[in-house]
Amino acid sequence: MALEDICRFKDRGLRTSEKNSAIPLDFFTPPSANSASFCLPNHSTTVRRPFPLSHGTTTLGFIFQGGVIAAADTRASAGGGADCMLWERILTREIRLYQLRHRRRLSIRGTAKLLSFMLHPFKGTEVCVALTLCGWDKEAGDCLIYVCSDGARLQGDIFSVGSGSPYAYGVLDGGLKWSLSKDEAISLAREAVFRATHRDAYSGNNVDLFHITAQGWSQRKREDLKEEYYRDMEKRSKDRREKIKRE
Amino acid sequence: MLSAQGFGDPGKMKDYHYTGPVEHKFSPYAFNGGTVLAVAGEDFAIVASDTRLSEGYSIHSRDSPKCYKLTDTTVIGCSGFHGDCLTLTKIIDARLKMYKHSNNKTMTSGAIAAMLSTILYGRRFFPYYVYNIIGGLDEEGKGAVYSFDPVGSYQRDTYKAGGSASAMLQPLLDNQIGFKNMEGVEQVPLTQDKAVQLVKDVFISAAERDVYTGDALRVCIITKEGINEQTIPLRKD
C-alpha cells in the first residue's frame, strides 16, 4: 500500500494536524487570522482559487435477490473527483491496516462508520465526498451504505448519488423488484445510467458495472454509451416506421 | 459619484454602477500560460510543451520550456502558475531522491504519478495552480501518460493536452489518435514518427489561435534508449 506517511514532510515546515493524527495526510492551509486557534480552514479566510472545481456524475447501487449491483458513469470532473479518489485510497489503507492489526476483516457498517468519522473534521470545508459502499459481509449479508462528507451515513436498499441521480432514481424506481434475475438487474442498472447520462450534462462517457455476492465481486466490461445511444435511436426510428406502416 | 454618460460602454446602465473605491485582496496566484501535451505509444512516449512564459499582455520569456526530466524514463509537463510549477518540480525531485536513497531503486512512472497525486492533495485547501501531465514508460516498457487536475485527481491515458490551449488540442487528438467520430477508418496503432509529426502540427495550430502559446516547441521523446529532445520554432506573435 503506497500511502505511506509521505505527507509528513517535515522540512517544508508544514503544520501537522495534531488534533487529527488519525488522518494520514497533512493539509497545508494558507495563513489566516484564526490559524493559531483553529486547525482547519474556514470558508471566509480561504484563498480564492483561480480555477473552478466542478462536481458531476451518476452512480447507483441496489440490492436484489441475487446480490448487490453497483453502477457508475466514468466522466471525471475536477474537485469532487480528487476528493473521492484520495479518500477512497485512505479508506482502503485504513481497512487494510485494520485487517492486519485485528486479524479479521472490517464489516461494511464498520467501514462506513470509519470513513464517516474520518471525514467529520472536514465538514464545512469544500471537501466533497459521497460514497455508496456496496458489499457483502457475514454480519449483515448484502449491504448498501451511503456515506457523504456532510456527515450522512445511511443504510438502504437503493441509492443513487450525483448530478444525474434524479434521472437514475426514476428508472430504478420504475423497474426494481426484489425478484429480478441477475441479467435483468444488470440491464436495469445499465439503463438507469444510460438515461441519466443522456439527460445530465455532467454525466457521460462510459458505464462501469459491478455485481457483488457472498462469493466476491465481478466487473462487467466497460461499455461506451455512445453505441447504446445509437442503438436506442435505431430502435426508436424502427418503431416509428412500423407504427406508420400499420396506419 | 456621477459617471460621465457620454463616454464608456453604451448600454451598460452606468447610472447604477458602483463607482467608488474598490479594495483588491492580494492574490497569490498568477496565470503564466503555456500548453503541454503527452502521447503514449506502444514502446515510446512523447511529452511536448511550448516555451512561452507570459503574464497578462506581456511575455516574460520566449525560452521557458515546461517539460522537466524526472528520471531516465519519465518526463513531467507542468503549466499554469510558473511559481507553483517550479516549487512542485523541486519537491518531486527531492522526493525522488529520498525514494532512491531509502529503496535503492528509481521510481517507476506509475509510482511517481501516485506520489504526485498525494502531494497535490496535501494542498487541497490552497492548491498548486498547476496542470500536470506525466509521460514515460511503464515497467513493461510500454508508453504511459498520466494526467492530473490541480488537486490530485489523476488517471492513465493514451494522450492528453493540458494548459491554455488544451481545449483546442484535445478534440483534435481525440479525432486523430482516438479515431473518435470517424466512420469506417482503419484503426492503426500510432508509430513514433507519425506521433512526432502530429504533435508538431497540433502545436502549430495552437500557436495560431491561442495567445499564450507560441515562440518554440520543445519535444521530449522517451524510449528505452533514453530521452531525446528537439526544439522547433513556432509563431512569435
UniProtKB/TrEMBL annotation, chain A:
A Pfam family matched in the record: Proteasome
Gene Ontology biological-process entries: proteolysis involved in protein catabolic process
Protein name: Proteasome subunit beta 11
This protein's GO CC annotations: cytoplasm; proteasome core complex
Annotated source species: Amphiprion percula
From TrEMBL, chain B:
Function recorded in the entry: Component of the proteasome, a multicatalytic proteinase complex which is characterized by its ability to cleave peptides with Arg, Phe, Tyr, Leu, and Glu adjacent to the leaving group at neutral or slightly basic pH. The proteasome has an ATP-dependent proteolytic activity.
Chief location category: cytoplasm
Family as reported in the entry's similarity comment: Belongs to the peptidase T1B family.
Pfam family, one: Proteasome
GO biological process: proteolysis involved in protein catabolic process
Organism: Amphiprion percula (Orange clownfish)
Keyword match Cytoplasm: yes
Protein name: Proteasome subunit beta
Domain of life: Eukaryota
InterPro entries reported for this sequence: Ntn_hydrolases_N (IPR029055), Proteasome_bsu_CS (IPR016050), Proteasome_sua/b (IPR001353), Proteasome_suB-type (IPR023333)
Cellular compartment(s): Cytoplasm; Nucleus
Keyword list, A-Z: Cytoplasm, Nucleus, Proteasome
PROSITE patterns in UniProt: PROTEASOME_BETA_1, PROTEASOME_BETA_2
Statement: the UniProt record of this protein carries the keyword Ligase: no
Any GO CC annotation of this UniProt entry: nucleus
